[in-house]
Design goal:
2 domains; Arc Repressor Mutant, subunit A; transcription; Tetracycline Repressor, domain 2; single chain; about 220 residues; HTH_TetR; mainly alpha
């Protein structure tokens, strides 16, 4: 039974990926606005009904790769030690994902995704793809925080982290000569909460109002 279930799930994943790749290819060739669900289904050699079993629309099919990568990121965050400060755990997860090879210039997904970057008809769905995972990410961050306002602080950190990732992705797509890991490290470094930054001489000397201000973000 387990083998049958596993085979069935692999076939579903393969069909979903084939639809995603067909959608990307057609969007690059004709522009996202001219692509239809019917055309995507035909290119993947499935029926319109089969397409509807996997995706709610062409935008969802186009962003399937992004969704997979966001879910993988969430998995990597969950694998980080729970005693790490939240931002450090988030940063290490993002860098670990970059090390998995998502910056390979020969990757068809990457080259096609770059060509679609910033298209007006896709921006809203991109924001939605990030928002869909924000709740789960915030719940994971909250496990690393204490205090009655932990859920709120977790939401702030989660939203900040995902917004920072969008900036890093845009920077990398616009400047492909720089490795993804380096771009992520720089951008995430700029957004690091004060509590996770190395102490400055001013704070070491006890500048008024600085000591412990953000320690609860840890």
């Amino acid at each position: 039974m387990d083998e049958c279930t596993g085979l069935r799930e692999r076939k579903k994943a393969a069909t979903r990926l084939a639809l995603h790749e067909a959608a990307l290819r057609l969007a690059v060739e004709h522009g996202p606005d001219r692509v239809t669900v019917e055309a995507i289904a035909d290119a993947a050699n499935v029926s319109r009904r089969t397409f509807s079993n996997y995706f709610a629309g062409k935008e969802e099919a186009l962003f399937h790769g992004d969704t997979l990568r966001l879910r993988r990121l969430l998995e990597l965050v969950r694998q980080q030690p729970t005693d790490l400060p939240p931002w450090r755990a988030l940063t290490w997860a993002a860098l670990a994902q970059a090390d998995e090879g998502y910056d390979d210039p020969a990757e068809p997904w990457l080259s096609r995704r770059r060509l679609l970057h910033g298209h007006p008809s896709l921006v809203a769905h991109q924001v939605g793809a990030y928002a869909a995972i924000e709740r789960e990410l915030s719940a994971e961050i909250a496990r690393r925080l204490t205090g009655p306002d932990a859920p709120l602080r977790a939401r702030v950190l989660g939203a900040t982290f995902l917004a920072t990732l969008r900036v890093a992705a845009q920077q990398w797509i616009e400047h492909p000569d720089e490795p993804l890991r380096a771009v992520l490290s720089t951008v995430l470094g700029h957004a690091t909460p004060a509590a996770d930054r190395p102490p400055t001489r001013a704070t070491d000397e006890g500048m008024p109002g600085e000591s412990g201000t953000h320690s609860d973000l840890r």
